[in-house]
Amino acid sequence: MDDTGAGPVLILGGRSEIGIELARLLAPGATVVLAARRAEQLDDQVATLREAGAAAVHTTEFDADDLASHGPLVASVIADHGPIGVAVLAFGILGDQARAEVDATHAAAIVHTDFVAQVSLLTHLAVAMRTAGRGSLVVFSSVAGVRVRRANYVYGSAKAGLDGFASGLADALHDTGVHLLIARPGFVIGRMTQGMAPAPLSSTPDQVAAATARALAKGRRVVWIPWALRGWPVVRLLPQFIWRRMPR
Ligand SMILES: NC(=O)c1ccc[n+]([C@@H]2O[C@H](COP(=O)([O-])OP(=O)(O)OC[C@H]3O[C@@H](n4cnc5c(N)ncnc54)[C@H](OP(=O)(O)O)[C@@H]3O)[C@@H](O)[C@H]2O)c1
Description:
alpha/beta; binds NADP nicotinamide-adenine-dinucleotide phosphate; about 15% strand; single chain; 7-stranded parallel beta sheet
């Protein structure tokens, strides 16, 4: 059981660079649960969070693509550690856009992980948090979903769907004691984007985590990272013949 009173911090995608950086900031005095594939291979992440001051760090096996496992996972975290304080949905895949354009199975797999699985987990978590009357959800959207680009339309469309779902869910949770934060980073220099040339207004996982933790503490609904990207929706006004040529 979590005896801090704040409830455990659950990181779904417990090996995510952004997720671990955020967990480090939320760790002091907290019980942290890392849910990931190959949960027995999380020693580095567990050590990092202990060093960051976590009261306890637990690991649990989690495959986001296995939708039937989501309900039992949420229930077992609550049974073992009490009502969840913060749940961070940090899992995701970029996928291979060129392959996804010709391989329907790959296209559907990207959307399954980045949209369908997120919808499933958010629904289970929201129901549990509403029952408890408290808790915070952190959703990682992306500027890629604000206006979908030709160059990454499969990943971008999943993020667009996720962003829309999360916006509606945030409104549904208004006045329930449950809070949902939508983080919209731009290009993040890290494992997911390895080998790609950084786009303008890039950030790093620790910068994304710091901005997200600040927004969470303030109870904000949306955070753009970097903050300058809050003007990004203006790209909706660009004519299609220009937008079509935009790099990813
Ligand atoms: N990096 C960027 O440029 C960027 C920009 C905007 C938004 N975001 C979003 O931010 C979130 C975190 O990204 P990140 O940069 O931290 O990426 P990351 O370091 O690549 O982490 C993503 C994690 O998702 C996990 N994952 C993928 N499929 C999974 C599945 N089926 N079941 C369980 N776990 C699964 C991976 O687990 P394994 O270790 O098992 O492979 C990996 O640890 C993602 O939603 C991403 O789309 C990232």
